[in-house]
Amino acid sequence: MYCPFCSNENSRVIDSRDSDESIRRRRECLTCGLRFTTYERIQTRALIVVKRDGRREEFNRDKLWSSMKNACAKRPLPIGSIEKAIDEIETYLVSAGRAEMSSRAIGELVMQRLRNLDRVAYIRFASVYRDFRDIENFKEEVDALLQPKEEEASSQLSFLKDDELTPVGRRKRGRKPKKPTTRI
Ligand SMILES: [Zn+2]
């Protein structure tokens, strides 16, 4: 840590404060006596993502961001909602404290969030990401999500709960409920 005034290397810490991602330190140069502030970023341990084919790579926030951005293209999302979702996912991954995480598990975390944010974005992402067992399963998901507008408000509220059992749209239209969609 070099003093910005005299470039001497020796300083003493006179105050230290933690914030979310960095430590703010107030320092005093031992040579010229002037004070300066440093922000030291905490180096988090890299998370390894295990891909479907077994290959491993470091978790890459930018990559996750671009795949979510593709799914959300031209959708009316609040500004910053993708970043917020990624922050939540990253925080979850770090707090889970695991050295490795499957790409599928990370995909599920993304889908949970997209499903609450925007249905079209969710379907786009899921159609790329999820192993739908067959076309019929995916069609049921889509049918359940893309209901007539007037049913939207009520179904949004009970969406997560109901969807575990039966696609909401089908039940409301009075058809025989189909076999529940398997969730991972
Ligand atoms: Zn100095």
Explain what this protein looks like in three dimensions:
With 184 residues, the protein is an alpha+beta fold. The chain has 3 domains: 31 residues, no CATH class; 86 residues, no CATH class; 53 residues, no CATH class. The strands form 2 sheets. Strands 1-2-3 form a 3-stranded antiparallel sheet, with no helix packed on it. The protein has a 3-stranded mixed sheet with strand order 5-4-6. A hairpin with a 3-residue loop joins strand 1 and strand 2. Helix 3 packs antiparallel against helix 4 and helix 4 runs antiparallel to helix 5. The longest helix has 17 residues. It is elongated and about 75 Å long. About 14% of the residues have low confidence. The structure holds zinc ion. The site of zinc ion (ZN) has 8 residues, from loops. Zinc ion (ZN) binds next to loops.
Give, in spatial order, the strands making up the sheet with the most strands.
1-2-3
Helicity, in percent? 40-55%
In DSSP terms (H or I, runs of 4 or more residues), the helix count works out at 7
Largest sheet: 3 strands, antiparallel
The overall pLDDT average reads 77
Radius of gyration over C-alpha positions, nearest whole angstrom: 24 Å
The CA-CA distance between the termini, in Å, is: 49 Å
Beta content comes to 15-25%
Order of helices and strands: EEEEEHHEHHHHH
Number of domains: 3
